[in-house]
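Title: Prediction job returns without error message
Component: structure pipeline
Severity: low
Priority: P3
Assignee: unassigned

Description:
Job completed but the reporter wants confirmation the result is attached to the right record. Sequence as submitted:
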Amino acid sequence: MQAQVSAVQGIAVDDLNNDGKPDLFLVGNKWAVEVETGRCDAGTGCFLEGDGKGGFRWIPNTSSGLWARQNARSVAVLKGQGGRKTVIVGNNNDAAEVYSKGGLKLLQ
């Protein structure tokens, strides 16, 4: 249900909570739509924790620390020295959002 509140435009697959199992982070929204439809802007990003068997459990944004409220089009996970991960959300006609270990509950 939580993954369907708005249009999904980007998905990152990575072990974001460092439990050895792949997780999903979905971003989206769609602001450029015809006037009679209204824009799809209810998305805040959706973190789905993987169980390693193909199942996923939604983790609220208040617990994950991931918030993608803009008109997001893409998401990527970059890996740095010592396994440090940074999540970058690309927003349409706006600045990118960057979540790293210091500001991301999952990666602490």
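Comment from assignee: result matches the submitted record. The chain has one helix and seven strands.
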